[in-house]
């Protein structure tokens, strides 16, 4: 997605790191770059607003549920793989062979 206009920070960079911005997981200097971009780029601002609304809805509907420790560890492990640029397996490598066999068609 791009608005077709030149920006100091490219639309693709903003959209690739949108969740980091939403979750306040980036340095202040990068946040400032994104805020400037949103002021200049209405398509990216619209996407930001949509994702922000979805995040609030999920928090409101699911925010009270406790996440199992093992599930949290698996999700965090996959996030780290993605951030490091490694390939993420399509199936759960930590699952038992019996569980993996039940998931296959």
* Multimerization status: single chain
Order of secondary-structure elements? HHHHHH
| N-C termini distance | 35 Å
Can you give the helix content as a percent range?
55-70%
Q: What does the radius of gyration come to?
A: 18 Å
Describe the biggest sheet?
none
Strand content: under 5%
Keywords summarizing the entry:
single chain; about 100 residues; mainly alpha; 2 domains; Anti-sigma factor RsrA; Znf_put; Anit_sigma_mycothiol_RsrA
Task: Write a compact overview of the structure shown.
The chain is an all-alpha fold. 64% of the residues lie in helices and 0% in strands.
Question: What is this structure's SSE topology?
Answer:
Blueprint: H1 11-16, H2 18-22, H3 28-40, H4 42-62, H5 69-83, H6 97-103
Helix pairs in contact: 3-4
What does this structure look like?
The chain has helices at 11-16, 18-22, 28-40, 42-62, 69-83, 97-103. Helix 3 (28-40) packs across helix 4. By secondary structure, it is mainly alpha-helical. The two termini are 35 Å apart. It has 2 domains: 11-62, no CATH class; 69-103, no CATH class. The chain contains 6 helices and no strands.
């Amino acid at each position: 997605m791009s608005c077709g206009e030149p920006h100091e920070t490219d639309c693709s960079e903003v959209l690739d790191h949108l969740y980091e911005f939403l979750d306040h997981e980036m340095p202040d200097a990068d946040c400032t770059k994104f805020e400037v971009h949103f002021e200049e780029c209405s398509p990216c601002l619209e996407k930001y607003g949509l994702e922000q609304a979805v995040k609030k809805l999920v928090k409101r509907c699911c925010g009270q549920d406790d996440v199992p420790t093992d599930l949290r560890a698996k999700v965090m492990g996959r996030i780290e793989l993605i951030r490091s640029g490694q390939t993420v397996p399509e199936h759960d490598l930590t699952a038992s062979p019996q569980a993996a066999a039940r998931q296959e068609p």
